[in-house]
Structure formats: C-alpha cells, structure tokens
Specification:
globular, Hypothetical protein af1432, 495 residues, 22 helices, single chain
C-alpha cells in the first residue's frame, strides 16, 4: 500500500535511528523495536519499579499494584489500543502494511517507560525535590556565591549578565522536577554500561514517551498548554537533534504519545479503585454508590449508556467494571484518534480521553471517587507524609556535596583511597557508580563547550552535580530510600 501521497501518512513516524548505530544488524524494522523492549525490561531501572508504589507504598499485599505491575498493564492496554488504531490507519491508506506491527511495538515500549523516572514515594517524592529546589541557591559553593546573590537581589526589570541568566535557567530543572523528564534522562544517560548513550533506544521510542514537549522554564506565562516539563536542560540537545532528524517541529507532540497517554489514563483509573477494594478501603457496593453520587453531582441524572450492575449481581470489580469499561474506553479513544486527524498528525491535539465521550466522563468520575476515598485514606496519606519526610531528609544531608568547591569534589570523586574522616567523602561513596560514570561523561561535554570560560564551566558542573544527587535519590526504591534516611539520621545502621 502506497501512503506517500497521503498528507496524513504515519509511516514517517516509524523511525529506527539510534544515537549510536547498533552493533547488530537486524533484517526487519519490527526487530529494532523488539530490541528496544528487551533493553527496557532487562534494565535495572525498570526492575526497580517493582519496589516503587503506584498508590500504596511499602505494601505487604502482593496483589496491590506497584509501578512495575501498573506499567505492564498500561503496556497491555496500549498494545490493544495501538492495534486498533494501526488497522484503522491502514484501512484509510495512512499506514503501510509493514508498519502496523512497528507502530504497536513503539507504543508498547513507551507505555513500559512512562513511569520509569518516578522517584521513591511517587508524587510526594517529586514534591519534596521541588520544595528543596526553592532554596537550592543556598547550597552553591562560595566561589559562585556572587552569582546567586545577583539572582536574589537584582530586580527583574534589570538585565542580568550571561552567567546569571545561565544559572537561573539551569536550576529550573529542579524547581520543575518531575518523573517524566527524569525518565528520559535515565534511558538516555544513566545506563552508561557500554557508552554515554545509555539504553540507546530508537528515536521513535524516545519521542513516544515525551508527554510534555518542553524544558523547565523560568517564565510562568511561557508554559503554554503543557503544565509540566517533558525533558531537562541536560537532555535538551538530544531532543532537538531527534526532532531535526525526524523533521518534527519542536514543541509538538509525537502522534504515538497520545496512545500511551490514553492507555495510562484508563489503566490507573481502573487499577486504583481495584487496589482500594483489595485493601478493604472501599467495597464494590460502596464504589457503585460513590460513583452514582459523583455522577449525579457532575452530570445530574443523565447516565448516558453506562452499564452499572445491580449490587446483588456483583461478580467482582474486574469482571463488572474494569474489563468492559476499559474495552469501551479503548474503542472511543481509537475512534477519536482517527477523528482528530490532522491535529494528531501535527502533535497539536488534545487528549484521546475526552469528556465529549461517555467513557471520558466515566473516567473523570472514577478519578473523583479515587481522590475523595482512596488518596485521602489513612493508609495512603500516612505513607505520603512519611515519604515526603524521607526524601527531604536525604536531600538535606546530600546538600553538603553541593556546597563543596569543584576542586575538592573532583579530588574525592576520583580518589580510590577511602581513608580519611571526611563526611562528604563517605556520602559520595554511596552514590551509584553508573550515576558517577554518567556525570563524568557529561562533564567532558561541558568542558568542550565552555572552553576557556571558567565561570561558565563551574556553573554547569555544579548543575551536573545537583543532577547527580537527584539521580542517586530518584533511582532508589521506596524501601531503600527509607533505609538510607534511617542511616543518615542515625536511626539504624544499613547492613
């Protein structure tokens, strides 16, 4: 089937380019994306998701979801949705036969990756990092204090010098910290076992996981329609290079992102309720009543075509709600993908889960029930408060490393001799070797771009050092973060 003349052809989004050409030649396009999947599921970052909470941290009940089981479920839903969309596109002459399976595989990969950057304790871990970042200039070394003072005291209407502006821009990585850009950082930088290109995934897979195509920014008015950042300044060059290679305008979404996002929305709406039932926070009967109540509050007595089983006929949440409602939501999302046409193709569309449709309304109500019943439960809130305190406590200690002058930090980092009583030395030895390796790769790059500008080098190095600390903490599981906190506070000894 020839799709080249179709202005909405999707074949151009199936791209197997990698930052570094693969050392293994593959005969078929689909094999490149299967290779991506293998690289993802065999990575330590993906495995760590099994000990990171979806909603309930440090959960002893193995039936309750972790980030890993959630990611697998999102991937399953994403495959089903992508398959429907791919065949619809093929039927419309917008996708060639040979690219049906690659499209589905790309979406599966993006779904597996969508939560890989989440720090311990999820959104409360993110909140702790962002709160810490509000005072990040307090941790700047003495030889750069003049710049931090400029940022704090120079009126906004007065022009700052180049290095002042550089530092102001770079620290937004931490002020807008989020699991999404951290995820991209992990798969492009933080698995440097072979070289600096980490997992070296295909460009199509990488772009398909970037939900918010912008960097953290200093001006609130510039955020536009994307409420969050999708990549840090550390990965800005990579993203720009991929967009240029694939001839996709910066700031536009990749079409397959919409499929991954819809699969995630459907999955967590269903799974959060199911986990609440599993933990005994809410029963199936209570869910029905709460759902009806919320629906009436929002939409009155209109219940559209929603099928709600009677209490006496309940066979379980999964059988009655999760499966049939997910199936309907997938069908609506697939139809909306085709309907939005040019907006999807150009990356300017709204979400596939729309309140214009029945299941969009249903998922909205399910979110309201979850927020009111589950997220405010004692079980959830007590862990969230503890998690926030844990991450804050670890950050408070690790700021000692940020306060060091570069020369002293460099000496410790590259010294294999562990003798000495320096507390900072001991802290640095706890940082994972792969994070340090990634830091050194990035340090070499900024050395090249700053040339003889020593102050710019020191600013960029300090920024990389801050990322090194956040990389280390974000990579922890919930349990390991708790153990680290207890050790740093002298509560217990890590063995």
């Amino acid at each position: 089937m020839n799709t080249k003349k179709n202005k909405l052809a999707y074949d151009k989004f199936i791209n197997t380019t990698r930052k570094r050409k693969s050392t293994y030649e593959r005969e078929r396009v689909i094999e490149e994306f299967y290779s991506d999947k293998s690289r993802i599921i065999y990575s330590s970052s993906f495995r760590r998701l099994q000990q990171k909470a979806q909603v309930f941290s440090l959960e002893p009940n193995a039936s309750v979801r972790t980030r890993l089981t959630h990611s697998l479920e999102v991937s399953d839903l994403g495959r089903t949705l992508a398959n429907k969309i791919a065949y619809k596109l093929n039927k419309n002459g917008q996708l060639s036969d040979e690219n049906i399976l690659p499209l589905v595989a790309i979406v599966e990969n993006a779904c597996l990756l969508h939560d890989i950057g989440n720090p311990p304790f999820g959104h409360f871990g993110e909140a702790a990092i962002k709160e810490w970042a509000k005072n990040i200039l307090e941790y700047i070394p003495k030889n750069l204090e003049h710049i931090s003072k400029n940022l704090e005291h120079i009126p906004k209407n007065l022009k700052k010098n180049k290095n002042d502006e550089l530092l102001e821009e770079l620290i937004t990585d931490f002020k807008e910290f989020d699991g999404n850009p951290q995820g991209l950082r992990i798969i492009t930088k933080l698995h440097p076992d072979f070289d600096q290109h980490s997992l070296n995934l295909t460009y199509s897979t990488l772009l398909s996981m970037i939900k918010y195509p912008r960097t953290p920014i200093t001006n609130e008015t510039d955020k536009g329609k994307f409420k969050k950042a999708g990549y840090f300044h550390t990965e800005k060059n990579i993203v720009e290079e991929i967009h240029e290679k694939l001839e996709i305008p910066l700031g536009s979404r990749y079409p397959f992102v919409y499929i991954m996002e819809a699969a995630d929305d459907i999955a967590y709406c269903m799974s959060d309720i199911a986990d609440g039932i599993e933990k005994g926070i809410i029963t199936e009967t209570e869910f029905i009543e709460e759902f009806k109540k919320e629906w009436k509050n929002v939409y009155g007595r209109r219940n559209s075509k929603i099928k709600i089983p009677k209490t006496q006929n309940l066979k379980g949440f999964t059988y009655n709600f999760s499966i049939p409602w997910s199936r309907e939501a997938i069908e609506e999302a697939a139809n909306r993908f085709i309907k939005l046409g040019d907006a999807i193709h150009s990356g300017t569309a709204e979400s596939l889960i729309s309140k214009e449709n029945t299941m969009g309304k249903v998922l909205e109500i399910m979110k309201k029930v979850s927020r009111r019943i589950l997220y405010k439960s004692f079980e959830a809130e007590s862990i969230e408060i503890s998690g926030y305190a844990v991450i804050t406590g670890i950050l408070d200690v690790y700021t000692k490393i940020l306060k060091m002058n570069y020369s002293n930090f460099d000496k410790i980092l590259n010294d294999n001799d562990i003798d000495g009583d320096d507390f900072e030395k001991r802290l640095i030895h706890f940082i994972g070797k792969r994070y340090i390796k990634a830091y050194n790769y990035s340090l070499k790059e900024i050395n090249e771009i700053t040339e003889n500008n020593n102050e710019e080098f020191l600013i960029r190095e300090w920024w990389l050092r801050a990322h090194l600390i956040i990389d280390h903490i974000s990579g922890m599981t919930d349990e390991y973060a708790l153990q680290t906190y207890q050790m740093l506070k002298g509560i217990s000894i890590m063995r």
